[in-house]
Amino acid sequence: xxxxxxxxxxxxxxxxxxxxxxxxxxxxxxxxxxxxxxxxxxxxxxxxxxxxxxxxxxxxxxxxxxxxxxxxxxxxxxxxxxxxxxxxxxxxxxxxxxxxxxxxxxxxxxxxxxxxxxxxxxxxxxxxxxxxxxxxxxxxxxxxxxxxxxxxxxxxxxxxxxxxxxxxxxxxxxxxxxxxxxxxxxxxxxxxxxxxxxxxxxxxxxxxxxxxxxxxxxxxxxxxxxxxxxxxxxxxxxxxxxxxxxxxxxxxxxxxxxxxxxxxxxxxxxxxxxxxxxxxxxxxxxxxxxxxxxxxxxxxxxxxxxxxxxxxxxxxxxxxxxxxxxxxxxxxxxxxxxxxxxxxxxxxxx
Length: 350
Prior knowledge:
The protein is of the alpha/beta class. Helix content is 22%, strand content 34%.
Protein backbone atom coordinates (compact mmCIF):
# COMPACT_ATOMS: atom_id res chain seq x y z
CA UNK A 1 0.00 0.00 0.00
CA UNK A 2 1.30 3.45 -0.94
CA UNK A 3 1.96 5.71 2.02
CA UNK A 4 3.77 8.92 2.83
CA UNK A 5 6.06 10.05 5.60
CA UNK A 6 5.45 13.78 6.09
CA UNK A 7 7.71 15.88 8.31
CA UNK A 8 6.54 18.94 10.18
CA UNK A 9 8.61 21.12 7.82
CA UNK A 10 6.49 19.85 4.91
CA UNK A 11 9.01 17.38 3.39
CA UNK A 12 7.27 14.31 1.96
CA UNK A 13 8.60 10.82 1.22
CA UNK A 14 6.49 8.25 -0.61
CA UNK A 15 6.96 4.53 -0.03
CA UNK A 16 5.17 1.24 0.61
CA UNK A 17 3.56 0.56 3.97
CA UNK A 18 4.09 -2.88 5.53
CA UNK A 19 3.61 -4.46 8.94
CA UNK A 20 0.61 -2.83 10.64
CA UNK A 21 -1.56 -0.83 8.23
CA UNK A 22 -2.63 2.37 9.97
CA UNK A 23 -1.82 6.08 10.21
CA UNK A 24 0.58 7.14 12.98
CA UNK A 25 2.53 10.14 14.25
CA UNK A 26 5.78 10.35 16.19
CA UNK A 27 9.16 11.97 16.61
CA UNK A 28 11.34 11.11 13.59
CA UNK A 29 14.90 10.01 14.37
CA UNK A 30 17.61 8.04 12.58
CA UNK A 31 19.93 5.33 13.87
CA UNK A 32 23.23 4.37 12.27
CA UNK A 33 23.45 0.68 13.15
CA UNK A 34 24.28 -1.70 10.31
CA UNK A 35 22.85 -4.62 12.29
CA UNK A 36 20.85 -4.95 15.48
CA UNK A 37 17.52 -3.90 14.02
CA UNK A 38 15.65 -6.32 16.30
CA UNK A 39 17.17 -4.75 19.41
CA UNK A 40 16.25 -1.36 17.96
CA UNK A 41 12.66 -2.46 17.42
CA UNK A 42 12.28 -3.64 21.00
CA UNK A 43 14.37 -1.01 22.84
CA UNK A 44 11.95 0.89 25.12
CA UNK A 45 14.01 4.07 24.61
CA UNK A 46 12.50 4.36 21.12
CA UNK A 47 8.92 4.59 22.45
CA UNK A 48 6.94 7.30 20.66
CA UNK A 49 9.42 7.56 17.78
CA UNK A 50 9.45 6.89 14.05
CA UNK A 51 12.85 5.27 13.60
CA UNK A 52 14.78 5.40 10.32
CA UNK A 53 17.58 2.94 9.66
CA UNK A 54 20.45 4.50 7.70
CA UNK A 55 21.77 1.11 6.54
CA UNK A 56 19.92 0.36 3.26
CA UNK A 57 18.96 -3.34 3.66
CA UNK A 58 17.15 -4.39 6.83
CA UNK A 59 15.72 -7.77 7.81
CA UNK A 60 18.24 -10.04 6.09
CA UNK A 61 18.75 -12.27 9.16
CA UNK A 62 15.12 -12.21 10.25
CA UNK A 63 13.74 -12.06 13.77
CA UNK A 64 14.38 -14.39 16.69
CA UNK A 65 12.74 -14.08 20.08
CA UNK A 66 15.91 -14.68 22.07
CA UNK A 67 17.30 -11.24 21.21
CA UNK A 68 14.30 -9.18 22.35
CA UNK A 69 15.24 -6.21 24.55
CA UNK A 70 11.66 -6.02 25.89
CA UNK A 71 8.58 -8.19 25.64
CA UNK A 72 7.27 -6.18 22.68
CA UNK A 73 8.24 -3.63 20.04
CA UNK A 74 8.19 -0.14 21.53
CA UNK A 75 8.70 2.27 18.64
CA UNK A 76 5.83 3.85 16.70
CA UNK A 77 7.02 3.11 13.16
CA UNK A 78 10.04 1.69 11.34
CA UNK A 79 11.41 3.25 8.12
CA UNK A 80 13.82 1.41 5.80
CA UNK A 81 15.21 1.81 2.32
CA UNK A 82 14.65 -1.88 1.53
CA UNK A 83 13.30 -4.74 3.66
CA UNK A 84 14.29 -8.35 3.18
CA UNK A 85 11.40 -10.81 2.86
CA UNK A 86 13.58 -13.91 2.57
CA UNK A 87 15.94 -13.82 5.56
CA UNK A 88 18.76 -16.35 5.86
CA UNK A 89 19.99 -17.24 9.32
CA UNK A 90 19.82 -20.43 11.39
CA UNK A 91 18.24 -18.48 14.27
CA UNK A 92 15.54 -16.87 12.15
CA UNK A 93 11.98 -17.42 13.38
CA UNK A 94 10.03 -14.72 11.53
CA UNK A 95 10.37 -12.10 8.82
CA UNK A 96 10.59 -8.42 9.66
CA UNK A 97 7.23 -7.77 7.97
CA UNK A 98 5.42 -10.45 9.96
CA UNK A 99 6.99 -9.30 13.20
CA UNK A 100 5.85 -5.70 12.70
CA UNK A 101 2.38 -6.90 11.77
CA UNK A 102 2.16 -9.06 14.88
CA UNK A 103 3.45 -6.18 17.04
CA UNK A 104 1.09 -3.59 15.55
CA UNK A 105 3.97 -1.42 14.33
CA UNK A 106 3.87 0.44 11.01
CA UNK A 107 6.69 -0.15 8.53
CA UNK A 108 7.56 2.03 5.55
CA UNK A 109 9.99 0.97 2.82
CA UNK A 110 11.26 2.37 -0.44
CA UNK A 111 11.96 5.95 0.58
CA UNK A 112 15.30 7.72 0.23
CA UNK A 113 16.54 7.23 3.79
CA UNK A 114 19.79 9.03 2.98
CA UNK A 115 17.91 12.19 2.01
CA UNK A 116 15.70 11.90 5.11
CA UNK A 117 18.74 11.53 7.35
CA UNK A 118 20.40 14.60 5.80
CA UNK A 119 17.27 16.65 6.53
CA UNK A 120 17.25 15.51 10.17
CA UNK A 121 20.95 16.28 10.55
CA UNK A 122 20.54 19.75 9.08
CA UNK A 123 17.25 20.78 10.69
CA UNK A 124 17.20 18.52 13.75
CA UNK A 125 14.78 15.90 15.00
CA UNK A 126 11.21 16.79 14.15
CA UNK A 127 7.72 15.42 14.38
CA UNK A 128 6.22 13.48 11.50
CA UNK A 129 3.35 11.31 10.37
CA UNK A 130 3.06 8.19 8.24
CA UNK A 131 -0.28 8.05 6.43
CA UNK A 132 -1.83 5.85 3.79
CA UNK A 133 -2.16 7.56 0.44
CA UNK A 134 -1.34 11.25 0.25
CA UNK A 135 -2.63 13.07 3.33
CA UNK A 136 -3.60 16.70 3.03
CA UNK A 137 -1.68 19.39 4.88
CA UNK A 138 -4.70 19.80 7.16
CA UNK A 139 -4.72 16.10 8.03
CA UNK A 140 -1.00 16.19 8.78
CA UNK A 141 -1.37 19.30 10.92
CA UNK A 142 -4.19 17.72 12.90
CA UNK A 143 -2.18 14.57 13.62
CA UNK A 144 0.92 16.52 14.61
CA UNK A 145 -0.99 18.83 16.94
CA UNK A 146 -2.33 15.85 18.88
CA UNK A 147 1.07 14.15 19.29
CA UNK A 148 2.08 13.89 22.95
CA UNK A 149 5.05 11.78 24.06
CA UNK A 150 5.18 13.06 27.63
CA UNK A 151 3.92 9.70 28.95
CA UNK A 152 6.44 7.40 27.24
CA UNK A 153 8.24 6.56 30.49
CA UNK A 154 4.97 5.47 32.06
CA UNK A 155 4.20 3.41 28.94
CA UNK A 156 7.43 1.45 29.27
CA UNK A 157 8.24 1.24 33.00
CA UNK A 158 7.45 -1.85 35.07
CA UNK A 159 3.80 -1.98 36.12
CA UNK A 160 4.65 -3.26 39.59
CA UNK A 161 7.67 -4.24 41.68
CA UNK A 162 9.20 -7.73 41.32
CA UNK A 163 12.39 -9.61 42.23
CA UNK A 164 14.92 -11.44 40.04
CA UNK A 165 17.60 -13.96 41.10
CA UNK A 166 16.87 -13.78 44.82
CA UNK A 167 19.98 -15.77 45.93
CA UNK A 168 22.27 -13.12 44.41
CA UNK A 169 25.38 -11.71 46.11
CA UNK A 170 24.71 -7.97 45.72
CA UNK A 171 21.18 -6.68 46.19
CA UNK A 172 20.35 -3.99 43.61
CA UNK A 173 17.26 -1.79 43.82
CA UNK A 174 16.64 -1.30 40.10
CA UNK A 175 14.49 1.64 39.02
CA UNK A 176 12.97 0.74 35.66
CA UNK A 177 12.59 3.84 33.47
CA UNK A 178 11.92 1.65 30.41
CA UNK A 179 14.74 -0.85 30.82
CA UNK A 180 16.50 -2.92 28.19
CA UNK A 181 16.82 -6.60 29.01
CA UNK A 182 20.55 -6.33 28.30
CA UNK A 183 21.11 -4.15 31.37
CA UNK A 184 19.22 -6.52 33.63
CA UNK A 185 21.10 -9.51 32.15
CA UNK A 186 24.45 -7.78 32.73
CA UNK A 187 23.63 -7.41 36.42
CA UNK A 188 22.30 -10.97 36.70
CA UNK A 189 25.51 -12.24 35.06
CA UNK A 190 27.38 -10.59 37.93
CA UNK A 191 25.39 -12.50 40.52
CA UNK A 192 23.11 -9.66 41.61
CA UNK A 193 19.77 -10.01 43.27
CA UNK A 194 17.57 -7.40 41.59
CA UNK A 195 14.50 -5.79 43.10
CA UNK A 196 12.83 -4.02 40.18
CA UNK A 197 10.68 -0.94 40.85
CA UNK A 198 8.53 1.26 38.58
CA UNK A 199 9.66 4.82 37.82
CA UNK A 200 7.09 6.05 40.37
CA UNK A 201 8.92 4.38 43.28
CA UNK A 202 9.19 6.29 46.56
CA UNK A 203 12.30 6.34 48.78
CA UNK A 204 10.59 4.39 51.54
CA UNK A 205 9.81 1.53 49.13
CA UNK A 206 13.50 1.20 48.35
CA UNK A 207 14.44 1.46 52.03
CA UNK A 208 12.02 -1.40 52.78
CA UNK A 209 14.02 -3.93 50.72
CA UNK A 210 17.39 -2.89 52.24
CA UNK A 211 19.43 -2.88 49.01
CA UNK A 212 23.19 -2.64 48.69
CA UNK A 213 22.90 -0.11 45.87
CA UNK A 214 20.41 1.73 43.65
CA UNK A 215 20.57 1.45 39.86
CA UNK A 216 18.58 3.46 37.30
CA UNK A 217 17.92 2.11 33.81
CA UNK A 218 17.63 3.65 30.39
CA UNK A 219 14.26 4.91 29.16
CA UNK A 220 12.50 7.02 26.53
CA UNK A 221 11.68 10.69 26.20
CA UNK A 222 12.49 13.79 28.21
CA UNK A 223 13.95 13.23 31.70
CA UNK A 224 11.89 16.19 32.94
CA UNK A 225 8.78 14.10 32.22
CA UNK A 226 9.85 11.40 34.68
CA UNK A 227 7.21 10.95 37.42
CA UNK A 228 9.13 12.34 40.40
CA UNK A 229 12.02 9.88 40.00
CA UNK A 230 14.68 12.59 40.40
CA UNK A 231 13.11 13.54 43.74
CA UNK A 232 13.31 9.91 44.87
CA UNK A 233 16.98 9.71 43.87
CA UNK A 234 17.70 13.02 45.60
CA UNK A 235 16.29 11.58 48.83
CA UNK A 236 18.55 8.52 48.52
CA UNK A 237 21.81 10.44 47.96
CA UNK A 238 24.33 9.67 50.66
CA UNK A 239 22.44 6.60 51.84
CA UNK A 240 23.27 4.15 49.05
CA UNK A 241 25.73 3.83 46.18
CA UNK A 242 23.86 4.98 43.05
CA UNK A 243 24.56 4.22 39.39
CA UNK A 244 22.69 4.67 36.13
CA UNK A 245 22.69 4.37 32.36
CA UNK A 246 21.22 6.71 29.71
CA UNK A 247 17.92 8.04 31.13
CA UNK A 248 19.15 6.86 34.53
CA UNK A 249 22.26 8.99 34.02
CA UNK A 250 20.09 12.01 33.28
CA UNK A 251 17.84 11.44 36.31
CA UNK A 252 20.88 11.11 38.59
CA UNK A 253 22.25 14.32 37.09
CA UNK A 254 19.01 16.18 37.78
CA UNK A 255 19.01 14.88 41.36
CA UNK A 256 22.56 16.22 41.80
CA UNK A 257 21.70 19.66 40.43
CA UNK A 258 22.68 19.32 36.77
CA UNK A 259 20.50 20.61 33.96
CA UNK A 260 19.41 18.85 30.77
CA UNK A 261 19.08 19.97 27.17
CA UNK A 262 17.92 18.41 23.92
CA UNK A 263 20.38 17.55 21.18
CA UNK A 264 19.75 18.66 17.62
CA UNK A 265 19.35 15.14 16.24
CA UNK A 266 20.36 12.86 19.12
CA UNK A 267 22.81 9.98 19.35
CA UNK A 268 21.39 6.72 18.01
CA UNK A 269 23.52 3.79 16.89
CA UNK A 270 26.45 1.57 17.80
CA UNK A 271 29.41 3.62 16.56
CA UNK A 272 29.69 6.64 18.88
CA UNK A 273 33.21 7.37 20.22
CA UNK A 274 33.56 8.50 23.84
CA UNK A 275 36.75 9.44 25.69
CA UNK A 276 37.53 8.33 29.22
CA UNK A 277 38.86 11.53 30.79
CA UNK A 278 40.84 9.64 33.43
CA UNK A 279 42.87 7.59 30.95
CA UNK A 280 42.51 9.34 27.60
CA UNK A 281 41.33 6.07 26.07
CA UNK A 282 38.56 6.22 23.46
CA UNK A 283 35.79 3.60 23.34
CA UNK A 284 33.22 2.95 20.63
CA UNK A 285 29.79 2.84 22.25
CA UNK A 286 26.14 2.10 21.67
CA UNK A 287 23.84 5.07 22.28
CA UNK A 288 20.16 5.97 22.06
CA UNK A 289 19.11 9.33 23.48
CA UNK A 290 18.00 12.83 22.53
CA UNK A 291 18.86 14.59 25.80
CA UNK A 292 22.15 15.26 27.62
CA UNK A 293 23.34 16.68 30.94
CA UNK A 294 24.78 20.19 31.13
CA UNK A 295 25.75 22.78 33.76
CA UNK A 296 27.36 20.34 36.18
CA UNK A 297 27.63 21.66 39.78
CA UNK A 298 31.03 21.86 41.51
CA UNK A 299 30.62 18.56 43.38
CA UNK A 300 30.02 16.62 40.13
CA UNK A 301 32.79 15.87 37.65
CA UNK A 302 32.62 14.69 34.07
CA UNK A 303 34.13 11.23 33.46
CA UNK A 304 33.47 10.61 29.76
CA UNK A 305 33.02 13.00 26.85
CA UNK A 306 31.66 12.47 23.33
CA UNK A 307 34.50 12.76 20.82
CA UNK A 308 32.21 13.97 18.01
CA UNK A 309 30.42 16.86 19.70
CA UNK A 310 32.02 17.27 23.14
CA UNK A 311 28.83 16.49 25.07
CA UNK A 312 28.80 14.90 28.52
CA UNK A 313 28.87 11.08 28.45
CA UNK A 314 29.49 10.27 32.11
CA UNK A 315 29.59 11.79 35.59
CA UNK A 316 30.54 10.93 39.15
CA UNK A 317 30.17 12.66 42.47
CA UNK A 318 33.50 13.84 43.87
CA UNK A 319 32.93 12.47 47.38
CA UNK A 320 29.94 10.07 47.25
CA UNK A 321 29.62 6.67 45.49
CA UNK A 322 27.48 8.00 42.64
CA UNK A 323 28.33 7.47 38.97
CA UNK A 324 26.56 7.14 35.65
CA UNK A 325 27.09 7.05 31.90
CA UNK A 326 25.05 8.30 28.97
CA UNK A 327 25.99 5.42 26.65
CA UNK A 328 25.12 1.71 26.90
CA UNK A 329 27.86 -0.54 28.34
CA UNK A 330 25.65 -3.59 27.74
CA UNK A 331 25.46 -2.68 24.00
CA UNK A 332 22.66 -4.85 22.54
CA UNK A 333 23.34 -3.95 19.79
CA UNK A 334 26.83 -2.53 19.47
CA UNK A 335 30.38 -3.03 20.70
CA UNK A 336 31.09 -4.54 24.12
CA UNK A 337 34.10 -2.26 24.75
CA UNK A 338 32.68 -0.73 27.94
CA UNK A 339 31.09 -3.78 29.56
CA UNK A 340 33.65 -3.42 32.37
CA UNK A 341 31.65 -0.47 33.69
CA UNK A 342 29.15 -2.83 35.31
CA UNK A 343 32.03 -4.17 37.43
CA UNK A 344 33.03 -0.59 38.21
CA UNK A 345 29.46 0.23 39.28
CA UNK A 346 29.45 -2.76 41.64
CA UNK A 347 33.01 -2.32 42.92
CA UNK A 348 32.05 0.19 45.57
CA UNK A 349 29.51 -2.23 47.01
CA UNK A 350 31.48 -5.51 47.17
